[in-house]
Amino acid sequence: MKFMTFFGSDSSQAMRRVSEELGAEASILSCRRVEGGVELIVSVDDSASATLQQADAKPAADVQRPPGNTRPRLQVASSQSEELRMLKRELDASRRTLEREMNAQDWAVEGVKKPSHSIALQICEALDIAPRIGAALARKVPAKESPDVQREMIRSLLRRQLKSIPTPAEGVTALVGPPGAGKTSTIAKIAAEFVRTGRRNDIALITTDNTRIAAQEQLRVYGDIFQVPVHTANSADEAARILKILGNKQYILLDTAGIGFRDRDGIDSLGSLIASLPDIDVLLTLPADREAYVLEEIIDAYSQLPITGVVATHLDEAVRIGGLISMLIKKRLPTVWISDGAQVPGNLTAATSAALVSQAFSLAREFKKRQRSTVAPQDRDENQTFLRGQRV
Q1: What domain range is 16 assigned to?
Q2: Residue 179 and residue 365: Cα distance in Å, rounded?
Q3: 348 contacts 338 by C-beta, under 8 angstroms
Q4: H helix intervals, 67-117
Q5: 173, 337 Cβ separation under 8 angstroms
Q6: 62 vs 4, 20, 56, 59, 355, CA distance in Å?
Q7: Is 256 a domain residue?
Q8: Is the whole model's pTM more than 0.70, yes or no?
Q9: Helices and strands per DSSP (H, E), number in the chain
Q10: Residues 252-298: tens digit of each pLDDT
């Protein structure tokens, strides 16, 4: 086990550096505020054929502040013993706990800066909104208003800041995003809706995912079920040729390979594919159950593509969606569809800001209830302003 130290002006920046250097699965052992920002100590397991290549990086005890441009690289063995997997799960759980503590620290700092806005800040914290965005929202809420009024004002502000665009029903739409984000199942749900409304002959599906045979087969199975044609394109030229052949179709959906946000070459290749196809809308598939800093990494990595909107997926697996909402606001990305389950057909609706905000409040309320059931009775009244409201 090796240890590394990372610094940032705040917890978000520190976590972003950890993600850039070691990936989203790095295990954080401690977090503390230091002069000028936040310090994270991260563990790296090198006992199972993992090698840590460090350019100028040093072990945690020897790292000098600031970290400079160190670029360590972690290569993990393809197989791990059950003991190591158990250890990884335990460390991941610790990382999530520390992330919550880091956010709590950031909220405490904002509370000290603006003590008069404590109620609005508590509401935003309960929603899991990013501290900086929550602080900006709180400044727009009159501190003398009642908690109920402040809560409704936060709700209204979020609705206004979130954007949505109509779901496309013609042309060509490509879904892009990281592995497991739900691109293929979303395309199947859209196709199912066309079939349900009697437009089977208006739609066709193309897959360019030649890295996972299972993904192609999954889409073909859906195509067979809904009697919708599915075509496979193994190159940009082949995709362009198929699009010409399908010129009589009203709507064509393009399923692409899942590419991680650290795979720059993969995203570059995807960009070349999309650039070769004229008049194509590109939707980024964002899993709502990821942490805010991971979502930001995904958005930043895919920003080189002409993204026109977002498909928000995995809402049924998210504990809270404040991170997703924060990134949509920060990056000014409109939502198009919302997917909240694996059922095909079904579990797919046109996105609206009102629906996302309502879901955020509902999930936060359930989250607080679960928290209350695990704490001592004398602590249950702390930070409960959010729970007093009954409306969604």
Answers
A1: 2-98
A2: 30
A3: yes
A4: 82-113
A5: no
A6: 9, 21, 11, 6, 50
A7: yes
A8: no
A9: 12, 13
A10: 999 998 899 988 999 999 999 999 888 899 999 999 998 888 899 99
